[in-house]
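Fold this sequence, please.
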Amino acid sequence: MKKFVVIAAAAAVMLSMLAGCSGKQKSGTVNTDGSTSMADVMGALTESFREKEPDITVNYSGTGSGSGISGVLDGTCDIGLSSRELKPEEIKQGAVAHVVALDGVAVVVNPKNTATDLTTEQIADIFTGKVTNWSELGGEDAPIAVYGREDGSGTRSAFEEIVGVEGACTYTNEYGSTGDVIGNVASNENAIGYASLSAVDSSVSAVKVNGVAPSEATVKDGSYTIQRPFVMVTKDGAELSEVAQAFLDFASSEDAAASIAAAGAVYPN
């Protein structure tokens, strides 16, 4: 009987040790790279994930959607970040999309601009150079300065495709980040540009499009039509590290919904 008690006690200790091992905190580094429009969302996700997994470091580099997709395909980052849908040629190369959020692409003007509501056709005419003066839209007699993102930007690709002006825009200036577009529209009373809704602040005004203001509610219900996905990209057949998989699983779960909303984007489910 005494022998049985000793064996049972030893077994209990072993089970306790195994349970402790199974609950061990993961540790390591996750390298993400891509869309600058996803900076706020990534910041919020990283902060919330750190509370769950304090020993995992998530690095973020904002180099643009195209670069992020190339990076994950080349193996130079664990997870790519894209603020547009994947292109057929990227999918053929093995890129796999995981939509973690939705984002409206806001059309922004200087707060002193009297334009508050534009149709999709008017926006297309402005960005293709058919309309070049605000007076043609009932505003001041002033030339329109058209600002946008650089070629390869996910924001630019999404905006041009949705508005129907892909490859046909005439930009006064092109910028390498969402922040640069907002900053330059804020400093020019005659400027117009586009930016991730999650990045829009009080320095600019987001116009209504076809009578609908961009917001979390109108993006989610689809009534605001200039919107795009925020995508985490992996490579088909390339197994993620344990820590990278843990971060992707978190970002794709309901646990991330509050963080995504706090960053100004919309949880897709």
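Confidence is low (pLDDT under 50) at residues 1-22. DSSP finds ten helices and eleven strands in the chain.
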